[in-house]
Amino acid sequence: MNKTASKECLFQTVNLQKFYPQTQSFALRDVNLTISEGEFVGIRGPSGSGKSTLLYLLSGLLTPSSGEIYFRGKPLENIKNKALYRRKNIGFVFQDFYLYPGFSVLENVLLPCLHKFFIPASLIKKAQALLEYLHIAGKKDLPVETLSAGERQRVCISRALLCEPRCILADEPTGNLDSENSRNILGLLQKINDERKTAVILVTHDDKISSFAHRIVHIVDGTLKAG
Amino acid sequence: MNVIHFLVKDIFRKKLRVFLTIGGISIGISLCIVMMGIGESIKNSFKDVYGKRQIDIIIQEKEQMSILLGRVDAGLVQAAQRTPGVEDAAATLLYINKFRGAACPVFGWEPEGFLFNTVKITQGRKPSAGKKEVMAGEALMKSLQKANERQVKIKGATFSVVGAFKSSSPFEEFALVMPLADLQAAIQEEGKASFINVRLKPDYRTESAIANIMKEIDDNSPMISAARADEFIAEKTKFIVMGEQFSLLVSLITIIAVALGLANTMVTSSFEKRRFLAILLALGWQKIEIALLFICESLIVAVAGGAIGILLGFKGTGYIFGLSHINAFVPVLGVMFVLKIVAMILVSAVFAAAIPAWITLNSNPVEVIRNE
Questions:
Q1: pLDDT tens-digit profile of B271-286?
Q2: Is residue A168 part of a domain?
Q3: What is the pLDDT of residues A155-187, one digit of tens each?
Q4: From residue A121, how far is each of A110, A126, A222, B355 by CA, in Å?
């Protein structure tokens, strides 16, 4: 194990590289990054700079070409069941929401736990409480396609929080929102980070992020830049 | 709320597609039931004639394949009755009569023989010898009463229907039974029988005793041969077994077509949901759970189609047996038969789910999320 990787660290990447053979290009080169438990980190950079690739690597959906990722001091590659790792530790928030049309707000929030044959009443209560927390409980029985973009992103955040993850990975969560809704969503993520101590790693182009995140990291051409 | 609720809601979002898929499965399953049901019912009909009457040995014309063409001397009954170990013997003369363009079996039995005791008279009385009287199986009787007929013609001679009977054999439900001598006279085969039914005493129903008795009967005449009743049935029902095997083959092909149709629906559904499935992986679903999701979805569609297919199949079998040209048989579709069909449906569903599950399990979720 890397000497600097420790329990206080949520994630640590050491010389992390990702090479895509199809395009013969590096999405990430020698990325060394440490993210602490409960930290709110904004990752900024132009399109194609490797921001989203970093998120997918941290989630275990992609595997590094070289280098290491440590999760709470443990090499991520040693975690055999990546799905279980994601379920317990990671909540995803997407730019395009990826809610399931035709289903209600509540049903969409429960999606991460739908693999259980029966969903216990306690979990349904928890989902309702989350909707309450994110000020969208009044619409829990409506089909998601009837919601505004801002409301859909709230549903997406509720879904990410259902399994009480240690970390939310947000991939351009304000990319499809107007300025006011962007500010609201960033405010909500900040509130979640403050009150629940859930770490937030947020990839964005949005300049407003600097007033919400503890720290901003810049990526250009797959390389971390100081700033 | 549970995963089934979610799946059912999801499946019925595409109403037309699910309706067509369920329709295809129903038709395929009902076709299998009708085809296999006919074969099974006909075979059981033959088996029941002998099994339920405790007939152990059949005496028949030597080297004669056809049950209809074979003839033995009806007087062999007395010789058989004198054989040690034989409890009773009775002659049967079988003739196939044309009735409203269909085949109607006519049995000639000795009036005092044990065969008359194996049927239950439900209407009227037993036919008397020498009076041109017959009794009809219940199915045939219903048909006659519907047409308000009380007479039948056999080889130009008119016979009165004086009673109806319920047989232990569905094969006899659409048959006529009359005294042996009357049938012999009607078809001008005096003194002849198609075969002799032999019942053994209980103590003689052992392999060695049966073999000894058969040898003793065989030694009586070079023109006859004795066969165990079960072997006789197997020999005479060879054509049915072949038909049944053909039905089974066609049914299997139909089931494969049903499974492929279902697989096509499942693959289409999986392509439509590619991104959603990738999101489920991102949300922490395991690949095996996604595979189970496909299997559940496939099972729901297959079970819905299968249930309708079983109902249609049973109705269809009943309807086909009700048609005049094959209503000598009554459908006998037991629990095992239904279980066989249910097993085929379930196997098809799992097969249909395996293909999209395999495609999903082998796709890269990140590529799907990014590129679609």
A1: 888 888 899 999 999 9
A2: yes
A3: 999 999 999 999 999 999 998 889 899 999 999
A4: 11, 9, 45, 34
Residue A87 belongs to a domain with what CATH number? 3.40.50.300
| DSSP-derived 3-state class of residue A113 | helix
CA distance B289 to chain A (A): 6
Integer distance in angstroms from the first to the last C-alpha of chain B? 30
**Partner-chain contact A163 B6, CB within 8 Å:** no
Is A108 inside a domain boundary? no
Give the long-range contacts of residues B292-295, CB within 8 A, separation 24 or more: B292/A115, B293/A115, B293/B3, B293/B7, B294/B266, B294/B270, B294/B353, B294/B356, B294/B357, B294/B360, B295/B349, B295/B350, B295/B353, B295/B357
Do B283 and A52 count as a contact with CB atoms less than 8 A apart? no
Residue listed under structure tokens 């329709």: B23
A61 touches chain B (CB under 8 A): yes
Token output for A20:
């895509």
Q: A26 touching B, CB under 8 A?
A: no
* B 288-327 near A (Cβ less than 8 A): 289, 292-293
Predicted ipTM?
0.88
Residues contacting B26, CB < 8 A, separation 6+: B305, B306, B308, B309, B312
Domain total in chain A: 1
Asked if residue A199 is part of any domain, the answer here is yes
Supply the pLDDT for residue B11.
87
Contact flag A83-B285 (C-beta cutoff 8 Å): yes
The pLDDT confidence band at residue B336, using thresholds 50, 70 and 90, is confident
| B79 pLDDT tier (thresholds 50, 70, 90) | confident
Domain that holds residue A216: 9-99+164-225
Which sequence spans correspond to the domains of chain B? 2-46+239-371, 63-222
Answer with the residue of higher pLDDT: A90 or A227: A90
List Cα–Cα distances, B41 to B10, B34, B104, B321, in angstroms: 40, 10, 17, 10
